[in-house]
Amino acid sequence: MTSIDEKATAAATGASATERFRTDKTHTADTSPERVSLLAREVLEAVHETIRKHQVTYAEYDALKAWLIQVGADGEWPLFLDVFVEHVVEEVANAAREGSKGTIEGPFYAPGAPWLGSEGTLPMRDSEAGTPMTFHGQVRSVAGKPLSGATVDIWHCDDDGFYAQFAPGIPEWNLRGRFETDENGNFTIHTIQPAPYQIPTDGATGAIIRAANWHAWRPAHLHLKVSAPEHLLITTQLYFPGDPHNDDDIATAVKPELMLDPKKTEEGGGIDVEYDFVLDPA
Fold first, then answer.
1. How far is it, in rounded angstroms, from Cα 174 to Cα 164?
2. pLDDT at 1
3. What is the pLDDT of residue 2?
């Protein structure tokens, strides 16, 4: 834990997230010049209005420039944007869905996780700390039809709050996997309960958090991408009741519909959670 904690800096995490974004988000938005002009102009006008409204000084302006430069130098744009902006993009993009609620993807997704069938255990270290957890449910359509062969792509942090591929010393696919639902649309995943964590704070994002006297905590959560042929993919997170930061998540990603209801298992000291996913037609 000490060696990981020492090396899991904001710059290293930011560099990993930036490289992952460049590798995986290869598509370019088919956006017209008129749309680009509209959005860019209105964002700039909002900045201008803030400057006029609050009589921003040159000292404050220079501090902003220095901070923006440092965000880029630290490679923290994926972290900053996913924490502070993505939740509104997700809200707009999924407003018309009738099925399960989505929320932000965040900066720590990695495609290509191993396939583990309709029931399996996420890859983990022999000494993996944390409360054992069985997570199961069904994937179905908005019409109520079970969807066999649906993909449940899951990833989450470990008991120390670190993600594989974004912190050193953790096996590549630790606590990451893909499941395929059975003929009844069911899946069962064996893993550990993730921990709450603070986003990296030793870089530029942490600097603005400290300057504004905000906290940096995310509540414990599971990340998921659920998809099926001829249906819309849903990207979401699931949360655990009782977490002190469910109500003030730094990423503003918690929704009441995404709260789990864990049950203690009779033996083994673990928990059992059930959650179904309803997919909209494509």
1. 6
2. 36
3. 35
Q: How far apart are CA 102 and CA 255, in angstroms?
A: 9
Look at residues 197, 280, 269 and name the one whose alpha carbon lies nearest to residue 232: 280
Q: Model confidence over 103-133: pLDDT tens digits?
A: 999 999 999 999 999 999 999 999 999 999 9
Residue 204, judged by CB atoms within 10 A of its CB (0-12, 13-18, 19+), counts as buried
State the pairing for strand pair 277-279/119-121: unpaired
Q: What is the mean pLDDT of residues 61-89?
A: 93
DSSP H/E element including 255: none
Confidence class of residue 30 from pLDDT cuts 50, 70 and 90?
A: confident
Lowest mean pLDDT among 13-17, 54-58, 88-92, 166-170: 13-17
- For residue 107, which of 80, 67, 73 has the smallest C-alpha distance? 80
DSSP string, 228-240: -TTB--EEEEEE-
Q: Which two tokens stand for residue 198?
A: 């603070």
CB atoms within 10 A of CB 210: 11
Topology (CATH level 3) of domain 1-282: Protocatechuate 3,4-Dioxygenase, subunit A (2.60.130)
Provide the phi-psi class of 68: left if phi over 0, else alpha when psi is between -120 and 50, else beta.
Answer: alpha
Question: Distances from the Cα of 5 to the Cαs of 8, 116, 170, 216, in angstroms?
Answer: 5, 30, 12, 16
